[in-house]
């Protein structure tokens, strides 16, 4: 997790409120590099929109839903727009505590009509969204569709099922104390054909509440479309794609925002030269339009053969301030640069970073953001030039050539981030000139063991006149890189990809400010997803079609639902669910693993998981497969450090009672065993040390008695544990337990 430490150089008291959204790692190398969006403030004197106007719009869309929120509970943010979209947005927020639980909402309205663009809402009570759920996915889909109808101009929208806007193979578990959420993505259509890159995402809790909506669409009133009747046969285009299919070996970087860890997988991916095939003329779709020649990726060429010296070792705060004044200066009497603050923090790699917050004051308002400087090297690691958004520019200036812009980008890297570049290559993907943003945007991939890394690159923006418009160093600290020698043969991966290849017909609009035409394109779909790759070490698809639903249900007379739920949430690991005997006694090690995974964000709980210098038990060292689980259990308070932990011993019912009580942080109450009266007929067989624990779990319904007996020393089965685990999750939520286990 990011650690912050203030070093106290607050230069003014002006509030800083504009930030840069860093680019996300690409899901696949054949996807155009997303550009950073910078929020630019609008001066309060330039807008007539009021908080009451936004509240009225909110109540129109959600009649009666937010009656519990008063006008004083709402706050309105300052109007803003983005560097790539000048439409002004307005934010409305509230936060309120109801019966000890927090409810909050955040809503964004845009344009003169104050159309809602996105929102996030967390109800105060989500108990009905925990297992067992109140609404199924089918019922939630109906709720999402009904909500979609409330939004303007959505009659032609269709549910997407190709994975383009979903998670890319994420299989980590989430705490069962978090609500079950169903997510549905809809895209507009023309003549029944989906329009790519436009969508509305709607999230519905399992209690029926619509809690999230994000809209990424634009008006098609001026749009023209290719004639659907002129398209080529899908089978002919499929044969064309398969004939020209090739695969590339890559590393794929992944970052877990819950644990703060970066890791890498070795993958095979379809070669990245094209995104689709024109459905009418058969040309290849690239980032620069359509071409009749088969696109091919560029080979690797390092930016520097040897490490270069850092720009300025151990740069000081004063030196950073001077750098900022020089780097950000504006040659205009109408604009005043002010460095608001320089603060120090530790990034995810453990490096000390200076955050330089600054404002440009112009007219009656101003624009502000920040950039980053590495303290150890004095190099700029994150920057976006916002001067282009308020300074006058000559729109008729012809942009420099792509080759000239690339040369400029490399020169800027040698000037501002030299110590990084020996690990990076020239772009291996084509680069297009962004006519709207008036810039080139180059992606320099990291090279490890001679192959490129997807999702770990240096991004550089070069404006039409050759100036540096953006720089972002995305250098993840990854300790373990899978050996290239472990990769399966390329032809085997190619055969798998070819077999899973299908085509999806879509309308796609090419880049260009004045281009309103949509081309009809066949886009490749790999094993059910537009973006998918092969695990190079196993030969299996990284993203499987409905992976959770592929896992069959576990049949059991009393715990079938709970067992199936834990299986599909990646909490319970079962190789053969159809023949799984849930009445088998569970060992302490396995039981602990299930409990820890049910209450923690997903780790790799194996020996390559999070580093930890502790060893709480003599027999559980770092080489033990359950080391991470045991240490996490100690952090959570389930276990107390000791000499030995009997991993392979079966767990008894009274021992499970103790663990459940510790999770709920009620051990101090349970220890007073003499105040409890146990009404079980076998109460005398319960160890006095466990009496308080048994009384509490029985009263809370976490463990059921059997024919008025507790059977304290009997073994806990997988079925017993599944039922207790699900009940524990709801009890932890209802207890308002704010502890989060990472």
Automatic annotation (TrEMBL):
Keyword Lipoprotein appears in the UniProt entry: no
Ranges of residues in domain SLH: 613-674, 677-739
Signal peptide (UniProt feature, chain positions): 1-27
Pfam families the UniProt entry points to: DUF4901, SLH
Regions annotated as coiled coil: none
Keywords noted in UniProt: Signal
Protein name stated in the entry: S-layer homology domain-containing protein
Species whose genome carries this gene: Lysinibacillus xylanilyticus
């Amino acid at each position: 997790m990011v650690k912050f430490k203030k070093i106290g150089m607050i230069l003014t008291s002006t509030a800083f409120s504009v930030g840069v959204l860093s680019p996300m790692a690409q899901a696949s190398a054949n996807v155009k590099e997303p550009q950073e969006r910078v929020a630019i403030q609008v001066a309060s004197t330039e807008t007539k929109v009021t908080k009451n106007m936004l509240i009225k719009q909110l109540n129109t869309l959600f009649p009666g839903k937010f009656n519990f929120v008063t006008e004083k509970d709402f706050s309105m943010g300052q109007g803003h727009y983005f560097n790539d979209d000048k439409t002004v947005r307005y934010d409305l927020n509230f936060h309120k505590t109801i019966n000890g639980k927090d409810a909050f909402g955040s809503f964004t309205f845009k344009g003169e009509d104050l159309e809602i663009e996105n929102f996030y809402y967390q109800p105060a009570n989500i108990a009905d969204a925990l297992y067992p759920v109140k609404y199924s996915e089918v019922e939630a889909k109906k709720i999402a569709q009904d909500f979609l109808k409330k939004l303007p101009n959505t009659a032609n929208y269709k549910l997407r099922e190709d994975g383009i806007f979903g998670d890319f193979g994420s299989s980590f578990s989430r705490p069962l104390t978090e609500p079950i959420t169903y997510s549905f993505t809809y895209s507009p259509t023309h003549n029944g054909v989906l329009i790519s890159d436009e969508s509305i995402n709607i999230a519905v809790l399992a209690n029926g509440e619509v809690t999230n909506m994000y809209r990424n669409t634009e008006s098609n009133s001026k749009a023209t479309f290719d004639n659907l009747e002129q398209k080529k046969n899908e089978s002919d285009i499929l044969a064309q794609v398969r004939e020209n299919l090739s695969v590339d070996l890559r590393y794929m970087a992944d970052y877990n925002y819950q644990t703060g860890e970066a890791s890498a997988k070795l993958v095979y991916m379809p070669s990245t030269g094209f995104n689709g095939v024109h459905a009418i003329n058969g040309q290849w779709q690239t980032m620069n339009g359509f071409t009749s020649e088969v696109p091919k990726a560029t080979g690797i060429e390092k930016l520097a053969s040897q490490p270069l010296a850092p720009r300025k070792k151990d740069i000081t705060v004063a030196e950073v301030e001077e750098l900022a004044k020089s780097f950000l200066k504006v040659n205009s009497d109408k604009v005043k640069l002010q460095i608001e603050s320089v603060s120090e923090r530790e990034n995810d790699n453990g490096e000390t970073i200076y955050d330089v917050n600054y404002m440009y004051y112009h007219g009656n308002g101003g624009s502000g953001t920040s950039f980053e400087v590495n303290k150890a090297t004095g190099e700029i690691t994150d920057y976006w030039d916002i001067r282009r958004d308020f300074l006058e520019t000559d729109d008729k200036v012809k942009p420099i050539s792509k080759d000239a812009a690339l040369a400029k980008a490399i020169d800027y890297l040698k000037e501002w981030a030299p110590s990084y570049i020996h690990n990076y290559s020239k772009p291996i993907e084509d680069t297009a000139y962004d006519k709207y943003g008036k810039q080139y945007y180059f992606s320099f991939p990291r090279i490890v063991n001679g192959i490129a890394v997807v999702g770990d690159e240096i991004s550089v923006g070069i404006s039409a006149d050759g100036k540096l418009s953006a720089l972002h160093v995305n250098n993840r600290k990854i300790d373990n890189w899978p050996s290239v020698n472990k990769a399966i043969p390329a032809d085997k991966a190619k055969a798998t990809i070819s077999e899973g290849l299908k085509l999806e017909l879509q309308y796609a609009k090419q880049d260009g400010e004045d281009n309103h035409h949509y081309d009809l394109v066949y886009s490749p779909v790999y094993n059910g997803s537009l973006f998918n790759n092969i695990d190079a070490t196993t030969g299996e698809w990284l993203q499987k079609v409905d992976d959770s639903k592929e896992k069959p249900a576990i049949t059991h007379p009393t715990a079938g639902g709970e067992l199936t739920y834990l299986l599909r949430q990646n909490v319970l690991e079962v190789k053969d669910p159809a023949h799984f005997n849930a009445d088998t006694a569970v060992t302490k090690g396995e039981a602990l693993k299930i409990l820890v995974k049910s209450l923690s964000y997903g780790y790799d709980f194996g020996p390559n998981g999070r580093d930890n210098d502790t060893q709480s038990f003599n027999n559980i060292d770092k080489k033990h497969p359950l080391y991470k689980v045991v240490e996490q259990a100690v952090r959570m308070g389930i276990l107390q450090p000791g000499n030995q932990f009997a991993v392979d011993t079966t767990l008894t019912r009274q021992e499970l009672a103790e663990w459940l009580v510790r999770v709920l942080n009620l051990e101090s109450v349970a220890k007073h065993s003499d105040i409890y009266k146990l009404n079980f007929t076998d109460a005398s067989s319960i160890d006095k040390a466990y009496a308080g624990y048994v009384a509490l779990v029985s009263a809370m319904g976490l463990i059921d008695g059997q024919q008025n007996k507790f059977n304290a020393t009997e073994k806990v089965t997988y079925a017993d544990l599944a039922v207790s685990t699900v009940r524990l999750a709801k009890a932890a939520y209802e207890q308002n337990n704010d502890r989060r286990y990472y």
